[in-house]
Amino acid sequence: MRIVPLKTTVRILSVFLLLLSFSVYPYESINQVIAIVGTRSISQIEYEDGVERYKSLSRFVPAYRKKGSLHSQVLDFLIDRAIVDIAADEESIQVNEKRIEAEIQKRMEAQGITDIEQFKRTVQQQFGLPYNLWLEDLPYQIKKGQLLQVKVSPPLPSEQEVVSWYNKNKSKVGFEFKFRELIISPANSSIDEETRVFQELNDIRTKSIKDPSFFKLVASGPRNESRNKASGGLVNWIPSFELFKSQPTTASVLSQVQQGKVSEVFRDDRKRYCLVFVEGIRPTPLDAVRKGIQGLLFRDKEQSSFEDWVAVTRKNTPIIIFDPIYMKEYNISNPEEKYNAD
């Protein structure tokens, strides 16, 4: 005699009792419940609430789920969500109001944000979703994150994958610049002084275009306020993203200047007048962006591994469909037939 595990027995009894409760009022139950996933039911009301939510979140849904009619896609979306809810319950993953508040606080601190209204605007820009919809979906994201730790084991990206991504996306990782800078501040804030300094740098630019060595000569002089004036104002190979952290305006200007050229006169973030002469441009070396690429690839692996886990778990979960549109679309003749769209 085969002994059925207690966990399986409880699940079977739960489904049986759920079905028994529907049989008392069959017409009403078919109108109210459109699917049973394991021990959970999906009602018509839940489906109607899920339609707009699915439309807003569909770009985050895996491609293999975007088949069939919109009606069936929404039901598949709700079935997959139910799979996650069931697994979270089995792992005792609870997402209450305090847990949600803690998650929001953690995300705000990670982004250096202290004002909730600013955080709401950031969320809308980052995810392209209304804040209320993002907040409604947050419990699912928390459960997903926890399940990734206890149920899913995404593989780490290999060195070959890192190198391959880098070679294919050099234009995305940015560039390193080798350049000389000349920085001069006005003696005071008068218009005459501002104009004088601007014109002085403009004259230096004109001469440097004719004779690039002139720029190095001036940038080595005592008036240059650059910390690198001892080396002729030379900044030797710095990634644009690193420069942006301390000198965002200079980084922006460099991105518009070709190698061997002098920039227009500009004012930096400290309101000083500046010129830069670009001596070299090259893609940011792999070692400078390796950790970032590894993180990006790992997040992709997390997503694909989680989608695979949901698909496999769904295949092993009893699913009963009552929805007539879905049944017709997938040729389901018996409502109590175990069914998966995979």
Automatic annotation (TrEMBL):
An MF annotation (GO) of this entry: peptidyl-prolyl cis-trans isomerase activity
Keywords: Isomerase, Signal
Protein name, UniProt field: Putative peptidyl-prolyl cis-trans isomerase
Span of domain PpiC: 157-290
PANTHER family in the cross-refs: CHAPERONE SURA
Species the sequence originates in: Leptospira idonii
Domain of life of the organism encoding this protein: Bacteria
Pfam families tied to this protein: Rotamase_2, SurA_N_3
